[in-house]
Sequence to fold (1929 residues):
Amino acid sequence: MGNSYAGQLKTTRFEEVLHNSIEASLRSNNLVPRPIFSQLYLEAEQQLSSLEAGSRADNEEEEEEEEEEGSESSSPPIAYQMKPPPEGCCTTDGFCQAGKDLRLVSISNDHIEVPSGFLLVGAKSPNLPDQLLVCAVDKRFLPDDNGRNALLGFSGNCVGCGKKGFCYFTEFSNHINLKLTTQPKKQKHLKYYLVRNAQGALTKGSVICWKGAEFRGRQSSSSTCSSALFQPPESSGPSVTITSDPVPATNPNTPSGTQQTAGTISDHLPSTAAFGPTIYNGKGSPKQHLVKNNLSALTRPSVLGTLTNSGPPKKRHKGWSPESPSSTETWNLQPNPQIPNKNKNDGGSLSSLPHSALIGPASSPMVASGEPVSVPDNLLKICKAKPVIFKGHGNFPYLCGNLNDIIVSPLLYTCYRNSQSISRAYEQYGASTIQPISEEMQLLLTVYYLVQLASDQVPLIEDLEQIFMRSWRESHLSEIRQYQQALPQTFPQVPSQIAPVTSAQLPWLAGLAASSCNDSVHIIECSYSLAEGLSEMFKQIIEGKLVKTNYVVILCASRNRCIDSCIVVTGKYQARVLSESMLTPADYQKEVNYQLVTGKVETLGSYFSTLCPEGDIDLLLDKFYQENQGHISSSLYASVNRTTTALDGTGASVCTSYNIEQHQIRPFQLAVAQKLLSHVCSIADSSTQNLDLGSFEKVDFLICIPPSEVTYQQTLFHLWHSGVLLELGLEKEHLTKQRVEQYVMKLDAESQTKFKAFLQNSMQNPHTLFVLIHDHAHWDLMSAVHSLYPQMEPSMGLVDRLLNCREVKEAPNIVTLHVTSFPYALQTQHTHISPYNEIHWPSSYSNGVDLYHENKKYFGLSEFIESTLSGHSIPLLRYDSSFEAMVVALGKRFPRLHSAVIRTFVLIQHYSAAMMAVSGLSQMKNYTSVETLEITQNLINSSRLCPSGHGLMVVLRIPCIPLAAVAYERLYHVRERLALEDNFEIILGNPNSGITIGKHFVEQLKIWQKIEDADWRPQTYLELEGLPCILIFSGMDPQGESLPRTTLEQELGLAAYFVSSESHIEKVVVNDVLESDQEKLSSTDNEDEEIVTEGSTSEKRSPMKRERSRSHDSASSSLSSKASSTAFCSESSPLLTTGDGAKSPHQVLGSSTEESGNQYEKQRQKIDKGAQAVSKNLPIAAEQLDTKQNIKNAQISITSSSSSPFSSSSFSSVPTHNSFILQTFQCVMTKASKQPPIVLLPKLVYDIITSTDSSGLPKSSSLLPYHSVMWASSFRPLMSKMMTCTEQSLYYRQWTVPKPIHIDYNNRNEGRMDNFHPRRLLLSGPPQIGKTGAYLQFLSILSRMLIRLTEVDVYDEEEININLKEESDQYYHQPGDVWPDLETFKKIPFDYTIHDPKYEDASLICTKLQNLSSEDRSMSRKLEDTYMHRQTTRMRLSKYAVYNTYHHCEQCHQYMGFNPRYQLYESTLHAFAFSYSMLGEEIQLHFIIPKSKEHHFVFSQPGRQLESMRLPLVTDKSEDYIKSPTFTPTTGRHEHGLFNLYHAMDGASHLHVLVVKEYEMAIYKKYWPNHIMLVLPSIFNSAGVGAAHFLIKELSYHNLELERNRQEELGIKPQDIWPFIIISDDSCVMWNAVEVDCSGDRKSEYTWTERNVSLKQILQHIESTPNVTHYALIGMRKWSSKTNSAEIKEPFSCCHVHDFIMLNVDLTQNVQYNQNRFTCDDVDFNLRVHSAGLLICRFNHFSIMKKQIAVGGQRSFHIKSKVSDTPVSISPAQYICAPDSKHTFLAAPAQLLLEKYLQYHSHRFFPLSLKNYSHPVLSVDCYLNLGPQIAVCYVSSRPHSLNISSSGLIFSGLLLYLCDSFVVASFLKKFHFLKGATLCVICQDRNSLRQTVVRLELEDEWQFRLRDEFQTANAKEDRPLFFLTGRHI
Fold:
């Protein structure tokens, strides 16, 4: 990019150039005019910065490339004068100015530093043709593989000298000494990418694709001409140049090419290009595959050049080709403008306008001025439609006269004004240099837009806005990027404004643009004011001169250099659509009612009557009735009789296809329910304390739905069958309908009473969580303030008044869930819903893998659209061309009738004629459409194909209730006359009333559904399953009603349904969207919905549209209404939901297409094309259906009710037009479940839905998502095709704002930092997919979770080995004693037997000869069952429970450290070292101490070094203080470990330390920021619990010594320091105390009760024990529900204690835990303590409950192979091996392998000991678990230790584990062994193994063999343990 020349038009040449251009155009075969801009001669007066010229670069690259290749130019190029180099710098070719070599051949092997984001490229120097110079260039300024997306400008570095930051290619080319003689341009001189080869040398790579996009663009454009701005559809090819010869240049010094890019217009015109495609929003652009390039092409060469393209064009003069590629690919205009137009017209664009725009330009400069203009009489009669005048720029004259025949709209003026406001996003950067589009440019772009519109297209404001936005962006691309990147350097100032289009040139340019459109656009230039132009226009209309003209552009450009303008729409079709789109929904209904009441429609009815060949249809019907009365023997009637007998008979021929699907939860729904639950939990888990789930005991709910009786009954049905009320415990077994109705509320006038009761209930039950479900949440988003206006319906605004009331917002126990298929209405800048609280329906596919295996597959809008592209023989989406043609023709014949009226009457006519034709009056076939005839045939014949008479439902969507009534009456009359009343039913569906059908059909339904209730009547459409009928579905907006599977025709939203996953039809569906991300359906289904919304605006304009728009529910409806009059369907479709009324007049321009379409659509939809609305409705309607689908899986066959298309598709799988003629009898129910229906759409809707822009986005994506929101800025980015639902949500949250009438409008004024309500969620999903079932399932699992939160699984196991207790009648204490007596307790013998049930698999400890049968101690559990099969019971948590990290409540908020005062960084790390002789080294531990806990510690004053942990005195007594510090070792349980002791301690002050491994320190600190952590040394990372216990005890004793020394200085005796600590498991959850009542008559009698108590009470009680310091260990019983009186009769026991112990570290100073142990270390320690003569006391009146935790703890140790990472099952037998063998080594500690091996395979070492309990294994100084089938006898080798008497005991084995020096040969010789008994010696290494054998003289009595030596399966570096076994001699 280099500098370019900017010049000004030489006005002296302007006329000459213009003349030449016109002449060339006239002589050219191409209808596209040659742009004048490209011929204007520009005088070079100044240089623009390279950034400005950048926009030209792409336009000129082709010409420059050709020039470089030697092509001739018609005039010599302008000499380029290079800036002289600085003095003293290097000027050698191939070197930079710093003298560094840049040639590739020289530096290819050098190491070159390339910054991130830069690429090495090769530059060509003119002086070194064979060399490439190496440069580093920012890849953002280089093109992609398609030659696109290169930023304008340049950024590069010199790889020679390393100089960085070259921002201009001119500057860079000077630095690298290119010595150019022409303009420096990066496209011309940067030629190749540079890559490194296999040897690492830099070589020339691929060519930089500067112009590849252009070539591709040309090729594709040949078939996509329609996208070209000016190219007419007839043009067949891309024509590179329009004229082959350049216009001779008058100035020989300037190349004629310079004339090509006139700076004036080209500046702004790039945007024009943009609308190129957009313009074709109509059918005019059949080729949807237009690429952006084509569009850009429009902009590139001339007219559309960027603003900065003001420089002289170069080289030979080339004609401008609309297809030539352009750099403005960013326009990304939708190539299929056709569709958008229709859609958008509906009101997308209109809706985006501010509400005030509806009122008019009161405050605008468009004040009437000058002479008034008289509107002629009979204007409507002459024009056949009311002309629509759009005010443009400047002043607008007064109008007088026949004002009823014209419509004036400020919509265009508002659009102009909005597009001139600079986006706030750029203002914050001070973007003062960026100017808005000029008025002249706006008008010129508008003319170009209108010129491109096809005859059946309607202009859309959205299209125009996009054009303006793209033009502005392209014109200022460089500046915008500069500001967006916030570059520090100042933006170079433009030397002068690029020459704009002047007001003097505007009329010429506008006229030139309009000259090729066959008078479609007519330009009238006024010399004084618009008044004269308007008068001239009216005159020409009267004279018939504007018959072929659709648009008249009137401009006056002479007033003070300002322009006045207006645009008049005179085309019949366009004017009708636009005028009707101006109507609000209320006005629309008034208009239709007026036409019906005043009899204006009679002319239409009489016209239809005259079409009958007999002269009058009614006469023909009467004649037919009389002829057939009394002897109707037709096959149709016979089939009805046959059906009846089949039903009443034996049932042999009864249909088997009819089955009522039971209520079931599908995998998708369960997944969504779990996502909802997850979001609720995340709210509770956040630190904001907005939801305390722990405080709720149950769930209650209220479902709010729109005021539709059918939807109400439908929701009751789902609720009843879901079983939720029973599961939540809200109702008893015998449910009544009245009880169920308490949980569902229609949002009507009577809802306030029910809602008040709900609020009162929530306030009275603070421990109940109330879920307020707002289903169909997009239905009524009217602000309560605006709903007070008298013209509003009383129910509007109720959602705001009820759900947004203060009580709901502030109630801490109410969660609000909005459920919708149309979430965009709630996603604005002021939304109440956090983006983190949105739940989107999940994708069913991920990378082609089906995530949810379901037997039914959802078939929604995206699948319907796919079917149109798949080459399927019958597209599932289509429109009825005959119907559309008739509506258009009648619209011209009856200009005063509303389109909705015409569509409805055409629909009635077609169905009436079709019924007559099917009944035998074949002459009527010519008066209906083929589609309608086929639908009717399918309807009437379907019941004959089923022995039970099942048939199809045809849905005619007629939103306007009066018109629906007319259709009902007329079709009912025709059916009666034709004697078809028993063949099918006609039902009028009104949202405000129930369903009424004839008695005959009620009886049929009761038989099919096996209903015996005599008073039963169907109350939902789903209950009409299988009933042959025509359903006339009325109501402006669908409100959630679902339709059955047998529906022949439905609206888009209603058409979404499920088909059998085996169905072959599925193959038709292409799953591109699904595979990428189901959420991305937003770009299909959702997008369509968006369209619909906008459509609603247009709908308002026309009856159909209005209806649609009202139908918030169905996006499709609004869509369809937008799309076209054919949008009947859409009108009827739920899309109406978009709220068409709101859009009102603004949308006129945009909705014009929509309007005509709307009326058509509305009528047709009403009639039977509701299906057409399907596209948008589908999403929404689907939502409505979704409930029904839950019930029946809603496989809905959708046939277009409006015409036959639906019927054929829904009816039969045969893809022929004769599908209704079937060779075999097959019930329609079978087919309905296997294949999708065919959906008939209005043409406008069809075009919108099926078209995409160049980026693949649906055309609808540019429409506003909802009628009561507007765009935050015209300068918003375009959506991306690959946006997920989440990304779409963020897009709308950023770029849409609610209008004052929107429910969220005032949310910004509440003064909070964020406007999100913390307890509000949004569930969105496609229509009919099952959202109702999902949220009902959510209620169920939420209730289960709350119950689960208040309950816990605790181990409930009886004590083991009870039968081994000594039977003694002696009791040492009375049952009521609360403390043990020390002297008495010393008399109690120690019970060696283990009774803790967790050690059921442990070896029995023998104390004497015991007789046990082998069955008593069998291997009861497998290895993997150790944790899985322990018995548990569910217990409700008490208020004294210990909690994990998921518990949050206000009381323990500060305790947990989430208080702002206690942040994570407010903890300090302290080292604490002490020496331990047994380890032979100093131990260094680390404490993490939160600031809030520092008072528990002593620090040195100068350096704040940790000195000790404070200990209390034995004599201290306090009710609020626990003296013993609590240590909890833990691993793998940072979330699930029970460390929150706040409630268990009942608020008492206590010291609690978590003991964690080093590698887990960070994660524990994250979850427990306010807990003290003791971090073990890293060498213990793989150690077991024994190491933690060992270090806790040694640290505590060391601390006791420190405290004694410290406090001794204070005069306190050492023995007065409290010596106890608590060692607690991390699964202790609750504690119980037994209260004994000994008040009986006899001392031995007592009663007892057990209750839950606080840990504080228990600890304070134990700490108060008399002589407590004489006890070494104190513990308590393990709780069991089976505890009996005998177990607690003795209140204190001397036995093993586990899990939660008080340890006296003073008394146990010389007794250590074994730091190597993983299992049974507590049993081992208990035996050591007892053998040392110390007292172990268990309080039997206290019990501990342990929670079952499935993660962490011992489960965190996994034994796996050290060689392979693949998980392979390794049996315990492989844990040991022979030394020096090739056995696979294991990655596990040697001690763990030893313990596990001995537990499961010790019989290999001790074969005589197996089940030989009378001859145990002698275990010296240790207890190792040898498995339950081997007994052990523990002895201590320490002097003076207490051991059992071994006299009389003969042992079957000897186990010597890591013997120390206390074990001597003489000690062992005291014991006796069986002959053949085995010995196992275990040592740290082989050397010590041999030394031990020698030292203990073992060879005297034991025989050893070499093969009896083993080791654990560890590698040498892992220090294996070694075994030696031998046999007793």
About this structure: The CA atoms of residues 103 and 1393 lie 89 Å apart. The first strand starts at residue 4 and ends at 9.
